[in-house]
Specification:
Blueprint (H helix, E strand, L loop, with lengths): L5 E7 L12 E6 L5 H9 L16 E6 L3 E5 L10 H15 L6 E8 L6 H12 L4 E6 L6 H15 L6 E3 L8 H19 L2
Parallel strand pairs: 2-4, 2-5, 5-6, 6-7
Antiparallel strand pairs: 1-3, 3-4
The protein binds guanosine-5'-triphosphate and magnesium ion (MG).
Length: about 200
């Protein structure tokens, strides 16, 4: 997709502040520091999402409006230990409330550090998203940090643990942009469906 315009539209701290525009949402979900904002910037070929070496900086849902046609939603990182239990619960409530809203077409992009094994929380989230019927792809990022052999092994592990098909698990690296086109292909697929349904 050619990016004509992209910018922060709104930072959302509670479900009632979600923009009420009839546009599809691409949701970027993953643990702190996994590379969500970096992935968004690579997809858009510009630095609009805030990245940092300090994990857990994003504390809200950041809505970026792309080409006035769709939203990219940058989720706060989760599972971060210095956040109080209450804060963590508030976060989980916001995300689940938002994701379960039926009135927006959504695709969930869950991001993992390819070197890690998904934990019980993450597998729980995957199952929850599947059960909600939201289209889901996994992006295994930081692929530049491991060997080709290990890429294949990790890929197989993710397939086995999540039950997703190879086609829905994409290996990515911000440093060489590996996987970028494939991710766009999946986003397009999810977004165009809606466009056809609604005859935009
Ligand atoms: P929070 O907003 O805190 O949840 O973090 P985030 O998931 O948005 O992560 P962010 O994009 O800020 O990236 C975290 C760190 O990982 C930064 O130092 C990035 O430069 C680095 N990083 C992200 N993607 C890659 C990648 O593909 N390869 C390498 N080598 N580093 C990466
Ligand atoms: Mg971020």
């Amino acid at each position: 997709m050619k990016i004509i315009s992209a910018g922060l539209f709104r930072s959302v701290y509670s479900a009632d502040a979600i923009p009420d525009l009839n546009l599809p949402h691409v949701c970027f979900i993953g643990r702190s520091n996994v590379g969500k904002s970096t992935l968004i910037n690579v997809l858009l070929q510009r630095k609009i999402a805030f990245t940092s070496s300090k994990p857990g900086r994003t504390r809200c849902l950041n809505f970026y409006l792309i080409n006035k046609k769709l939203f990219f939603v940058d989720f706060p990182g989760y599972g971060f230990s210095y956040v109080s239990k209450n804060e963590r619960k508030g976060w989980k409530d916001l995300i689940e409330k938002y994701l379960s809203l039926r009135r927006f077409r959504k695709i969930a992009v869950m991001i993992f550090d390819i070197r890690r094994r998904p934990d019980a929380d993450e597998l729980g989230m995957i199952n929850w998203i599947k059960a909600e019927g939201i289209p889901l792809i996994l992006v295994l990022t930081k692929a530049d940090k491991i060997s080709k052999n290990n890429l294949d092994l990790q890929m197989m592990m993710y397939e086995r643990l999540t039950g997703l098909s190879k086609d829905d698990i994409i290996i990515f690296s911000a440093s060489n942009r590996m996987g970028r086109e494939k991710i766009w292909g999946k986003i397009r697929e999810a977004v165009y469906l809606k466009i056809e349904e609604r005859r935009w």
